[in-house]
């Protein structure tokens, strides 16, 4: 097989920066690069901007971070000119929003859509990256920004016989974009009960004749924080977006600061029950108590949520299976839905508990567990992602001395502040492994890390201009002016 990785050779760079991916980070990276005076090109596998929100177009897809926070704040006019319809926006609205921002920033003409980056190779002598694409292009650049997100590499289901199934197969993480998926009147099996499964299952149940949910691990399921936007709150955001932006950056979760509840330890029984009920009704269980992370408070929250979940499911066996007994509240990210649990009260929806009766294999016409064969017309895989490292490891990246990124990360990701990897110069990873990424509001983080990336690029440019480090766009830059110390270098 020919080696896809190619060197820049004697070629001059085609542009300063290549940005891969056109989600939250990619759109902002393209805009920032151009604003700071760099020539830039973008590549995106999808046919439009959106990234994760482009691909995860499954029925019911919705954000569980509030729209007051889950948005760009870099531009006042963008904040003022976009109206969210719901506090927890649905996928089509988020995709439209990202398209609106990309148009407003005029970055779409910079992007080559429907094009995957198949390899990226660093030429050490030239100090340049060569980026190869599925369209057959080889683009030589000085800086490479992989804005490929944390949840963009679907997880292949490790189930025997998955390719044997002759019915329709869909992944929530790659829902078809070129046609309407019609599940009406069909027998649908859903594998996976994480956030995606929990959101998709009630929508599928609206049209399918039969829904069988294959659950391996039960999850906490909470009411959503959705509803109409508060006009006073929106007005406040629009008054001084830059102050809001600074506040979110200073906040641990990258959201608008959230008021913590009272201290569990200081409340009597009635006060605790009242606080729990208010947090449940208000959709803020995670912050129900100031000391929610301490065992006593966490146990109270866990028990309260289990009870609330249990009472919404009529069949006792299903209720018992659907409640997560094996981990504490917050031990895994809770799912959010106002309709998921009640879906099991419909006669055409049932649960298969894989811990009791595991899947043995997928066959031509359905799924066989240790207890039964379930005939199906459709299987929906809500089986998640090869998260965080997967998108980068799958990209065929070669750095100094031909080092392969996938090998360097074979035992786990190693990088600096989640953005740079030793041995892969001038390559940047906003929103990737080891950054706050999914522990934080991805929209805030995307802006913050892209700013950091381009501050670094600016600094590299400044040092090259001063002769402090070798220029990256020539094969030989002549004698360098060495700096005695890093601080001397900063002074140039
Ligand atoms: P996920 O959380 O990884 O859930 C995958 C599900 O598939 C789990 O229930 C898992 O079971 C199951 N699964 C995987 N392989 C399986 C197998 N071979 N057999 C049976 N079951 C299998 O994926 P996701 O739901 O797509 O969510 C991914 C991330 O995106 C999460 O961080 C989530 O919070 C986020 N997300 C957020 C939103 C939102 O903002 N509302 C919406 C969707 C997703 P086990 O648990 O037993 O492995």
Brief characterization of the structure:
This protein is of the alpha/beta class and 492 residues long. It has helices at residues 24-35, 52-55, 76-81, 91-104, 195-207, 231-239, 241-250, 269-282, 295-312, 316-322, 340-343, 390-393, 405-408, 442-465, 486-490, and strands spanning 15-20, 40-43, 111-112, 117-123, 128-133, 138-146, 168-171, 187-191, 210-215, 221-222, 335-336, 349-353, 359-363, 366-369, 373-375, 378-381, 397-398, 427-428.
The CATH class of the domain at 15-153 and 386-489: Alpha Beta
Strand content: 15-25%
CATH topology of the domain at 15-153 and 386-489: FAD/NAD(P)-binding domain
Distance between the termini: 47 Å
List the total number of helices: 15
Question: Which bin fits the share of residues in helices?
Answer: 25-40%
Could you say which structural class the secondary elements and strand pairing correspond to? alpha/beta
Q: What's the shape? A: globular
Bound molecules: NADP nicotinamide-adenine-dinucleotide phosphate
Kindly provide the radius of gyration, computed on alpha-carbon positions and rounded to a whole number of angstroms. 25 Å
């Amino acid at each position: 097989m020919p080696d896809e990785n190619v060197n820049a050779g004697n070629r001059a760079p085609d542009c300063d920066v290549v940005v891969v991916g056109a989600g939250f980070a990619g759109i902002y990276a393209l805009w920032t690069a151009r604003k700071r005076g760099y020539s830039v090109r973008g590549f995106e596998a999808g046919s439009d901007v959106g990234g994760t929100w482009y691909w995860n177009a499954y029925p019911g897809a919705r954000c569980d971070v509030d729209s007051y926070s889950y948005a760009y704040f870099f531009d006042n006019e963008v904040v003022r000119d976009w109206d969210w319809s719901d506090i927890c926006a649905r996928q089509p609205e988020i995709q439209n929003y990202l398209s609106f921002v990309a148009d407003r920033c005029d970055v779409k003409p910079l992007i080559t859509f429907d094009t995957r980056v198949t390899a990226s190779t660093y030429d050490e002598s030239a100090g340049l990256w060569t980026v190869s694409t599925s369209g057959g292009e080889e683009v030589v650049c000085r800086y490479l920004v992989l804005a490929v997100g944390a949840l963009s590499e679907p997880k292949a289901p490790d189930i025997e016989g998955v390719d044997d199934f002759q019915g329709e197969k869909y992944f929530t993480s790659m829902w078809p974009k070129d046609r309407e998926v019609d599940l009406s009147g069909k027998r649908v099996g859903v594998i996976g009960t994480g956030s995606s499964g929990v959101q998709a299952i009630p929508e599928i149940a609206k049209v399918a004749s039969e829904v069988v949910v294959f659950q391996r691990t039960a999850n906490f399921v909470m009411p959503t924080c959705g509803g109409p936007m508060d006009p006073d709150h929106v007005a406040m955001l629009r008054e001084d977006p830059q102050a809001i932006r600074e506040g979110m950056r200073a906040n641990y979760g990258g959201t608008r600061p959230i008021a913590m509840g009272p201290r569990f330890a200081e409340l009597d029984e009635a006060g605790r029950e009242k606080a729990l009920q208010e947090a449940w009704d208000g959709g803020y269980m995670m912050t129900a108590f100031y000391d929610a992370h301490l065992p006593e408070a966490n146990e109270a929250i866990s028990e309260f949520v289990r009870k609330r979940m249990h009472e919404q499911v009529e069949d006792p066996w299903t209720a018992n299976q659907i409640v997560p007994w094996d981990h504490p509240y917050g031990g895994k990210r809770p799912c959010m839905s106002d309709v998921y649990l009640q879906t099991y009260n419909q006669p055409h929806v049932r649960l298969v508990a894989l811990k009791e009766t595991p899947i043995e294999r997928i066959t031509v016409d359905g799924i066989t567990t240790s207890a039964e064969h379930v005939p199906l017309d459709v299987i929906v895989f809500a089986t998640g992602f090869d998260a965080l490292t997967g998108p980068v490891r799958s990209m065929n990246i070669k750095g100094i001395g031909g080092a392969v990124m996938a090998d360097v990360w074979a035992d786990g990701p190693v990088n600096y502040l989640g953005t740079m990897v030793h041995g892969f110069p001038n390559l940047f990873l906003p929103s990737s492994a080891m950054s706050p990424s999914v522990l934080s509001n991805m929209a805030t983080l995307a802006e913050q890390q892209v700013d950091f990336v381009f501050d670094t690029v600016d600094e590299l440019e400044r040092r090259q201009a001063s002769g402090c480090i070798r220029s990256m766009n020539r094969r030989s830059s002549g004698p360098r002016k060495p700096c005695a110390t890093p601080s001397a270098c900063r002074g140039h």
